[in-house]
Design a protein that fits this description.
Layout lengths: L2 E4 L3 E6 L3 E3 L2 E3 L2 E6 L2 E5 L1 H23 L18 H15 L10
Antiparallel strand pairs: 1-2, 2-5, 3-4, 5-6
Length: 108
């Protein structure tokens, strides 16, 4: 597998290794998963869908980032956490601050 895109209703998986022709790379094929059923994709369909999904991801991230001030750091094999346990604890605190946990029926 070279790529996987997971949505709410569908997942798409692309198989490799990639075949390079000119300046493009082509998956060997792929699959779409929907309600525990697979549909096999030909290399041509896999290429088209993968390119479409990659473009949608780029557009979505650009749009989402418009009003954000993100600090990019060099891409390293290990994420730049001086203290991973502290970083994880802070992430959990942030999640609990924004997540909406449904109430138990006993609380209603």
């Amino acid at each position: 597998m070279i790529d996987r895109f997971k949505g709410e209703e569908f997942s798409a998986q692309f198989e490799g290794p990639l075949v390079a022709i000119g300046d493009k790379t082509y998956p060997l094929g792929g699959f779409i998963l929907h309600h525990l059923q697979w549909a096999r994709l030909s290399p041509e369909d896999a290429f088209d869908l993968r390119e479409t999904l990659r473009a949608v991801v780029d557009r979505s991230v650009r749009k989402w980032m418009q009003d954000k001030h993100l600090a990019f750091v060099p891409a390293l094999p290990e994420k730049p956490f001086p203290d991973r346990a502290a970083a994880d604890a802070e992430a959990e605190r942030q999640i609990r601050a924004f997540a909406r946990v449904p109430r138990d029926l006993g609380d209603i």
